[in-house]
């Protein structure tokens, strides 16, 4: 059950990311054509008001198809109609005027030639695969020529649509953390004894739950951290401890600490109270913690570049596993982990690499500064590099997760 909830949580974060793109695109009148959780081929799909909603079979993310991410070119048509050309030469003749118009930049003429081309495709006796590919090619060019195409929009609209996904994940992370703080989080441990571990030196010396450790040896211990430091400083030598028991000072020991998991202990657990925050205070704490974690994630990405942070990379397998383990500890911990995942998705997508959101934002800014579009070839070369880097991160993360699962 924990694994299923972990998968559902990750899927939900993907959905809200894509919903950010989707609703902002609608708001700026850039009507999306598809809204998918995961990548095609589709397991289920339904069309409503001209938009296709579906769940894909490749669980690596999700996407919103916005029309015309790039200015249409003749090769866009040829890439999809190549099989149809071989099966029905008439289609190639009908496509030629459209190809010429696209190549010369006469977009109105290209749009006028599309109905005749589509009619030829429907009339020809094509195989199912060729017909489906040809129809998709014509539809893509139609979308790219539409008034609401992405490439036609001003830079601020494009940036708003693309940034909406990561921003949604960022806001959701802050919201989840605020909820966690309102539910209550553990405060710093106190000197008061909550549990005495049976069979350990503290139990043999007579330490009781409710005692407050006020000194170790001759040193006062105003905090639990001070208690830990004084016990660690004994290096295993016997020491007395002074506790406050019902208002009286009681000296216990000498007690000989034992070494466990690399540290000296006497065997008790401190009292840890929970602190619930008011909504305004919770919001402030959530924003502060988000900033701190963002800095840590940035440092982690830097270590990946230098090669020292390879073990910190995780894939969806590890993310689901971590979510499931957090759920076993408690629902609040699960919400905290979900917030961390949402923040990580936001920051990863803001990296200036195509096809990530950050890459599209960076290119839109450069085009705005240059005053003209970046050549299509540059997009494709940079996208190839970005895809290779993202796949490399995925493979590293997956290998790490397999290693963890294998012990």
Quantity of strands, as a count = 12
Total count of domains: 4
Class computed from helices, strands and strand pairing? alpha+beta
Q: Globular, elongated, flat, extended or rod-shaped: what is the shape?
A: elongated
Major sheet strand order: 6-5-7-8
Report the uncertain regions.
Answer: none
Q: How large is the count of helical segments?
A: 13
Radius of gyration: 30 Å
Largest sheet: 4 strands, antiparallel
Calculate the terminal CA-CA distance, rounded to whole Å.
Answer: 22 Å
Helix content: 55-70%
Notes on the structure:
- There is one protein chain.
- The protein has 4 domains: 2-59 and 156-167, no CATH class; 74-145, no CATH class; 171-184 and 277-405, no CATH class; 193-272, Pdz3 Domain (Roll), CATH 2.30.42.10.
- By secondary structure, the protein is an alpha+beta fold.
- The radius of gyration is 30 Å and the shape is elongated.
- The strands form 5 sheets. The chain has a 4-stranded antiparallel β-sheet with strand order 6-5-7-8. Strands 1-2 form a two-stranded antiparallel ribbon. A two-stranded antiparallel ribbon has the order 3-12.
- 59% of the residues lie in helices and 17% in strands.
- A hairpin with a 2-residue loop joins strand 5 (212-216) and strand 6.
